[in-house]
């Protein structure tokens, strides 16, 4: 990357990734409570990297004639580093898999009859004489099951 951009004065002293960096340092063998200077320096490095990457991606989008930065711009920025590009592609693939899994498990259990036209709700059926039946309105001699058999007439013939 080129030279890192100066941080805004309001961000000096503010740690953006303190919790994450402490966990990362501990996972890589540091003490449970790493030195504050270590966390501060790493936070500055990470923040500067993110800012610079976003600026380069924004510049790439501007060159392409767009005002909005797209994922392809970030792919372009990290394309020179094979490890970073590979990790980015791996994370994007995992995100896609997770979205598909959420969609597969997104069932309508517990919502039956609540949505419009759902299984717990009767459909509008024409009444005899051309009038429309309202939801839940039982006309008595209508075919409620859609099987072509007049329910009341079937019951009468069975009884008699």
Descriptors for this entry?
extended; 0% strand; single chain; 160 residues; mainly alpha
Task: Provide a short characterization of the protein structure.
Helices cover 49% and strands 0% of the residues.
Describe the structure.
The chain has 160 residues and is mostly helical. It is 49% helix and 0% strand. It contains 5 helices and no strands. The protein has helices at residues 18-27, 36-63, 71-78, 82-105, 151-159. Helix 2 (36-63) crosses helix 3 (71-78). The longest helix is centred in the first third of the chain and has 28 residues, at 36-63. It is extended. Residues 136-141 have low confidence and may be disordered.
Radius of gyration: 32 Å
Sheet of most strands? none
Can you give the helix content as a percent range?
40-55%
Elements, N to C (H/E): HHHHH
> Mean of the pLDDT scores?
77
- Helix/strand/pairing class, anyone? mainly alpha
Beta strands, count: 0
Break the fold down into its secondary structure elements and pairings.
Layout: H1 18-27, H2 36-63, H3 71-78, H4 82-105, H5 151-159
Helix pairs in contact: 2-3
């Amino acid at each position: 990357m080129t030279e890192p951009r100066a941080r805004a004065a309001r961000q000096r002293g503010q740690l953006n990734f303190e919790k994450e960096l402490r966990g990362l340092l501990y996972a890589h063998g540091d003490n449970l409570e790493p030195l504050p200077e270590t966390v501060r320096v790493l936070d500055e490095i990470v923040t500067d990297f993110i800012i610079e990457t976003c600026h380069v991606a924004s510049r790439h989008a501007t060159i392409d004639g767009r005002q909005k930065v797209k994922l392809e711009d970030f792919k372009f920025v990290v394309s020179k580093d094979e490890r970073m590009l590979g990790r980015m592609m791996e994370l994007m693939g995992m995100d896609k898999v997770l979205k598909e899994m959420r969609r597969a498990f997104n069932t309508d259990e517990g919502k039956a009859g609540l949505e419009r036209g759902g299984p717990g709700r009767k459909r509008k059926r024409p009444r005899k004489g051309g009038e429309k039946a309202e939801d839940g309105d039982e006309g008595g001699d209508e075919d409620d099951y859609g099987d072509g058999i007049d329910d009341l007439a079937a019951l009468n013939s069975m009884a008699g």
